[in-house]
Write a structure and sequence with these properties.
mainly alpha; about 180 residues; about 40% helix; two-stranded antiparallel sheet; 2 helices
C-alpha cells in the first residue's frame, strides 16, 4: 500500500513568548494530554490508495492502446486485401479480353479452313492448278489376308545405260506458297 503524502509547506519557526515578570505565562494553547493528537488547522486528509487500483489503471491504458493497435492493424489488412482483390479483377479483365480476341481469331481461322475444304473448290484447284484429270478406269486391288506372310517378289535390275521405265512429272507449286511433291 502506498500512502499519498500531502504537499509540504514551510512553517515559520516557533517562537516562545518571553516569560512575564510576574511569573505567569502568557496565554498559550493548552498542552495536549498524553494520548491526544494535536490537530493542524489546514492539513489535508490522507487517503490510502491500494496498489491494485494504480496497477489496474496502467493495465487499462495499456489495454486501450493494444486495442487501438489491433483495430489499426485490422484496417491495414482490410485495405491490403481490397487492393489485392482489385488487382486480381484488373488481371482477370485483361485475360478475358485476350481470350475474346483469341476466340475471334480462332473463329476466323475455322471459317477460312471450311472455305478451303469445300469439295467444289478442291475439285477446281485440282483441275486448274495441279492439272489432275479423272482416271479412265479404276482398278481395285485384291484383298490379301494380313496374317499370311507373302514372299518378296523377284526384281531384276535394268541393264546399265538403259533409260528409266517411266519419267516423273515436274514439280508444280500449290496455290498458297507450298510446293507439291511428285
Amino acid at each position: 500500500m502506498t500512502i499519498a503524502a500531502p504537499a509540504r509547506t514551510r512553517r515559520a519557526p516557533a517562537t516562545r513568548p518571553a516569560p512575564s515578570r510576574s511569573g505567569a505565562t502568557s496565554s498559550r494553547a493548552p498542552r495536549p494530554q498524553p494520548g491526544q493528537v494535536r490537530r493542524q488547522a489546514a492539513a489535508p486528509k490522507l487517503k490510502v490508495v491500494p496498489k491494485r487500483r494504480a496497477h489496474r489503471a496502467s493495465q487499462k491504458s495499456l489495454l486501450k492502446i493494444a486495442a487501438a493497435g489491433i483495430v489499426a492493424f485490422a484496417f491495414v489488412v482490410v485495405a491490403y486485401g481490397q487492393s489485392v482483390v482489385a488487382q486480381g479483377q484488373v488481371d482477370l479483365a485483361v485475360t478475358q479480353s485476350r481470350v475474346q480476341s483469341a476466340e475471334t481469331l480462332h473463329r476466323q481461322a475455322v471459317l477460312s479452313v471450311a472455305k478451303l475444304e469445300t469439295p467444289t473448290r478442291v475439285a477446281s484447284t485440282a483441275v486448274s492448278t495441279l492439272h489432275l484429270v479423272q482416271p479412265r478406269s479404276v482398278i481395285d486391288l485384291a484383298q490379301v489376308p494380313l496374317n499370311v506372310v507373302i514372299a518378296a517378289p523377284n526384281i531384276t535390275p535394268a541393264p546399265p545405260g538403259s533409260p528409266a521405265p517411266f519419267i516423273l512429272p515436274p514439280i508444280v507449286p500449290i496455290a498458297g506458297g507450298g510446293s507439291a511433291k511428285r
